[in-house]
């Protein structure tokens, strides 16, 4: 595929007046042809270092069930990570979970800027435009960002089935964790296995700064690694997301301070 016809994002249309937007930063493991395999073996692109396993399918299924718009990232995070700020040193990784990415090192400033301009920024423009379209009625949309995580880190098992990540805006977090835990059959992490306060990431940029209700939901990859797992989690999450979306307080603009420090002027 030629660079000129590589689409860095995909927008799934839905009811833009419905009040909800889904995001999937790491939905795909694809690379433009000009980058080959970045010096990595083929199996690296089946690992979590390349994309969030199961999230493309889960996002598509939820968007279909809920009839809501969604934005998918179409390039591998190994090329450039859309869930990092432009000045984040981990934006383009040289080593990822033990894998040396020779196609990313050394890298010139020209190439760094090219990846920002050609892939990272167009994705974020698509997110911005989709959220803007969903807020045309004057009320804030509910933004839910979907990710997945590995069942082990190194050799340490991760007991959580899902994790809810957040900075200081807990408006969505509290009812979402409550609803996820209600059946009593899964372990839900609160800012586990990661901390949700990351300066410049997607939620910071598109939700924290403008005061839009949001959260980032991580699902363990082995639970959504096949079609049945995806369907099971879509059926689990869809009614919860519907309940959240029906709450008028989750459609109000309110700016919360970030644990990462003051917002840019």
From TrEMBL:
Keywords (alphabetical) are: Hydrolase
Molecular-function GO terms, alphabetical: hydrolase activity
Q: Does the keyword Hydrolase apply?
A: yes
Record-linked Pfam families = FGase
- Its domain of life? Bacteria
Extract the Gene3D superfamilies matched here.
Zn-dependent exopeptidases
InterPro entries per the record? N-FG_amidohydro (IPR007709), UCP029730 (IPR011227)
- This chain's protein is named Putative N-formylglutamate amidohydrolase
UniProt organism field: Rhizobium soli
